[in-house]
Fold these 2 entries.
Entry 1:
Amino acid sequence: MSDDPNAEVDPALVSTRSVEVVVMALLLCVAVFLGWDNWRIGAGWAPDGPQAGYFPFYLSVLLGGASLVGIASALRSEELRDEIFVGRSAFGRVLRVFIPTILFVLLVQLLGLYVASFVFVSAFMIFIGKLSVWKSILTGLIFSGLMFYIFDMQFNVLLPKGPLEAAFGF
Amino acid sequence: MEALDSLFHGFGVLLTAHNMMLMLVGICLGILVGVLPGLGGPNGVAILLPLTFTMDPTSAIVLLSCIYWGALFGGAITSILFNIPGEAWSVATTFDGYPMAQKGEAAEALTAAFTASFVGSIVAVMLITFLAPWIASFALRFGPPEFFAVYLLTFCSFVGLGKEARHKIIISLTIGFLLAAVGMDTVSGELRMTFGSIEMLRGFDFLVAVIGLFGISEILLAMEEHLAFKGQEAKIRLSVVWRTWLTLPRYWMTLLRSSAIGCWLGVTPGGAIAASFMGYNLAKRFSRDGAQFGKGKIEGVLAPETAAHAAGTSALLPMLALGIPGSGTAAVLLGGLMVWGLQPGPLLFVEQKDFVWGLIASMYLGNIAGLIIVLATVPLFASVLRVPFATIAPMIIVSCAVGAFAVQNAMFDIWLMLGFGIVGYVFKKIGIPLAPMTLALVLGDKAEDAFRQSMIGLDGGIGIFWSNKLVGTITTLALIMLFWPLIGRAIDMIRGSGHASPASAASSESSRP
C-alpha cells in the first residue's frame, strides 16, 4: 500500500489532472460522434413512439454534458494537478505486463490458446519474474495441460487451437 | 407457510451428490478467486460462466452462486493477513483486521470475519426467502411502464447514492447504455452505431466487458503497485474459534445493525462496497470506545464483514424477483440466466420453481459449508499469495482470455477484453466507477425496450409513468433518489445542523477500491 516505508520516489510521468482532461475530451468527441450518427438514423418521434436513434441520441447528449462538466471540474481542481497519475517506473511495470499480454493474444491467433498459454506463462516467469528456467517451463506445461484437460476434455468448451493440436488429432 | 414448503422443496432439489459436489468445488474456487488479486466476484463468475453452458440451469446456478459466496469469504483472508483487500468490499476489513493480525490475533480476526460474514448472509437469505415470493407475486402485475420505472429507480439510486462525483457516475452509466445499444435495434431492426463493421453487429457482450474492466485492469493496477506479499502467519485452532464465538453475543447490536444496513444497500444498488464502509463507520460511532477503532478492535472486523455479506447476498433479491441485479456479480449471474434460456423476473417463481428454490436453498447450505471450509483451509489459501506474482499474473490473464473467448467463440472478443482492460485501468485511476457501466450494459436494452413499449401504448406521453398509483410511486421514488443529495442538503439546512450524514462520512474515508 501507499505507506510503504522504502518506497522510492517515483518521478511523475503524468498528472491525474492531465489524464482526466484528456479522457473527458475523448469522451466528448465520442459523444458528439455517436450523437451525430444517431441523429442520422432518426432521433425523433415517429407516430408509433421513439425512433431507433432516440434513446442513444439523448444518451450521447448526456454523456457529452457530463464530460464537459468533467473537463471544467478537472481544470479547476488544484488538488488533481499535483496528484500523480502514474510514476515513470510504475508505468514501466504496467507495460511489462501489458506488452507480453498483447504478444500472448497474437500468439493465440497463430498457435492456438494452449500452446500460447504455455509460452506466455513460462516466458513471463523466466523474463519478468526472473524465476528458474526449469521451474517456469514445468509450471507452464502443467498449467496448459490442466487447461486442456478441463476445457477440452471435461467441459467441451472449444477454444482456439493451432497446428500442434491438429498434429495430435484434436 | 408457503415459503417454507418451497424452501424444503429446494433442499430436496439441492441434496443430490452431483449438486453437493458442485457446491464444494464452487466454494473452493470462489475462495481462490477472492484471495487472488485481479480476480474478484464479478469477473471470477464471468470467467467460469462458459463451463456451465452445458450444465442444467440449477446445477449451473449452484456452482456460480457458490463461487460468489466463496469470493465473499476469501476477500477477508488477504485483508486480515496481508493488509491487501482481495476485494473492494473488504477494504474496510483491513482497518482493524490487519492490526489484529499484527498483534498475533490473526486467528481471532479471521474467525470473527468469517462468522460475521456468515451471520450477514444468513440474515439476507432469510429476507430473500420470505420477501422474494411476495415481491415476485406483486411484480406479476408489472407492465412495461412499471418495469421502466424500476430500471429508472435503479439507475437514479446509483447517481443519488453513489460516493463518486455525480458527473463521473453519469458518464459511466451512459457509456454502459450506449455500448448496450450497439448492434441491431430490437424494435425497428435498424443498425445502430455499427459503422459498417461486422464484428460490431453482434453488439458488446457485457461478460467480455466485465472480464476486461475488472480482471485485466486489476492485473495492471496490481503490477503497478508491485505487490510484495508480506503476510502474517495464520493457523486457526478449534479452541480459538470457540473462544471467539463465545465473545460474539456481546456484539449482537453491531451484527444486527450491519445486517440491516447491508440488506438495505444490497437491495437498492448501493452494493457491498458502500455497505461495508457504512457498517464500519456506524459501528465506530455507536461503540463505547470508538477511539480504539483502527487499532485492532474485533468490532471493526465484525461490522464491515457482516454488512458486506448481507449486501452481497441481498443483491440477489431484486435479481430473482424483478430481473434487476443489485450488484456487479448479480448482473453476471443474471447474464448466466439468460444464457441458460431462463427469463429472469417474477415469472421465474411460477415457471422455474426448482431453479429458484434450489438457488435459495443453496444460499443456506453454501454459507454453512463455506464457513466450515474457509475456517479449515485458511493456511492453504494464504499460501497461495506466497506464490510469486509473476506466476499468478499470466495464469489469471490466460483465464480471462479463455472466459472472454468462450462467450461467443470470437477472437475479436479477446482484443475487446484488452481494450476494456485499458479503459478499466484509466477509469479506476481517475475515479469513474465501473459498476454502473456494467449494470447499464446488462439492463440497457431491456430498459430501452420497456420505455419504448410504454410509449407505444395508450397516449404515448411521459404521463404514462404516473398513470396509476404503482408506477407513479416508483417513478417519484426514482426522482427522489436522483435528487437525494440536494434533498439531503436541504434537510440539513432546515435543521440548521452542519454534521454530515453517515453516507458522506463513509465516502470521505473510502479511497479508490
Entry 2:
Amino acid sequence: MAVGKEIRTKISSIKNTQKITRAMEMVAASKMRKTKDRMQATRPYAKKIGQIIKHLAHANPEYKHPFLVQRDVKRVGLIVISSDRGLCGGLNSNLFRKTLLQLMQWDKENIEVDVCTMGTKAVGFFSNLRKVNLTGQVCKLGDTPHLSDIVGIIKIMLDAYQKNKIDELYVVSNEFVNTMTQKPTVEKLLPILAGEIENGLSSGHWDYIYEPDAKEMLEHLLTRYIESIVYQGLVENNACEQAARMVAMKSASDNAGNLIKELQLIYNKARQAAITQEISEIVAGAAAV
Amino acid sequence: MTMTVHVDIVSAEKEIFSGLAEMVFAPAELGEVGISPRHAPLITRLNAGEVRVKVTDKESYPFFISGGILEVQPHLVTILADTAIRAKDIDEAAALEAKARAEEALLDQSGKIDYESAHAELIQAIMKLRTLDRLRKRGE
C-alpha cells in the first residue's frame, strides 16, 4: 500500500538514531562510573596537599616565595579545562559562558588575559575570540589523563607568573555536584593567601624547619600543589563530561521515543483513512450498479 | 597514657593510612627521621624507602614509598607519597626483576637509554628489596 511511505521511512530513521543515542547513553554511564572512581581516588591527595599549603600560608618564613605574595593585577592567567568531545548537553557552553562573563569583568577593569586551554572544545572556542591571547593548549587527553600530559601547560603559566608576566592565575572547570548537576567554577590558584586557622595548628609566630632548603622545598611543594589542583580539575571535568553526556543522551532517546509514538499515530490514522476511503468507494460503486 | 600524633599517609591514587601513632619513621632527603608527637613544624622531601608507623610497642605498619613530601605539625603528620604500598604487598619477584632490568640498562653504554630514569628505577627496586629485608629481620 502506497500510503504513508514517507512516514514509515521517517520512523525507521528515527529508530536508528534512537539506537545510537541509547548506545551512547550506556557507554557514557559505564565510563562515568570509572571516571567518578578516579575522581574520588585523587581527592585525598589533593585535600591533604591543600591543607599543607594552608598551613604554609600561615607560617612566617624568612623567605617569601612569589607564589604567596599578592601583587597589583595587570594581567591574569587563565587555564580553561573543557572536554574533547561534544554531544554532552550544555556542559561546555555553560563553562564558556561563565568564562566569558569573567573575561568581560576583567576587560572592564582593564586587565589583560592569557589563556591556556585543555581539551579540543576550548581550543575551538578560544581561537575564535580575538581579544584573547592563547599561550598554550593540550588536546586529546582521553579518558585516563596523566599528570605528565599537563605538566607542560602548567609550567608555561607558572613561568609567566614567576617572570611577573601574569599577576594572578585562575582555573575554570566544571565541578561535579552530582550526576544531574555540573557547576562551572572559576578558582583562583595564585597567589595563595592565608585563610582561616583550623584546629591543631600552632598559632602565633612560627615557621617550619625546612630540609634541605626553604626555597627549593617551597618551589617543589607549590608546583606540586598547582599541578594536583589542575589535575583534579581535569579528572573532575572528565566525570562531568560523561555524566552530562549520559543525561543528554537519555533525553535524546526519550525524545526519539516520543517522536516515534506520534509518527506512528499519524501513520495509523492515514492508513485507516485510506482504507475507509477505499471501502466507501467500493460501496458507492456497488450502489451505483 | 603515651602521647600520640595523628598520621595521614596519602598517595596520588588513594589514602593509605590514617590514624594515631606513637612515632613515625621516614626516609627524609638528609637522612632517616623519626617523628614523635609534638615535634616542631617541619617540611622535607622524602626519598624512596620505608615509612614505618609505630602505633604501639607491639604494633607497627611498614609502607614503601617512592618519594614524596613530609609535613610535620605538633599534632599532625602528613606524608604525601608519589606512590605508596603496604610493605607486605611488595612483589619481591617483580622488584628483583626490575632491579636486574635497571642494572642491565645502566650497563648498556650505547647511549640509547635514559640514564636518569634507569637510575631512578634501580633505586626504587633496591629500596623495595631493602624494605622487605628489614621486614623479615623484624620477624613479621
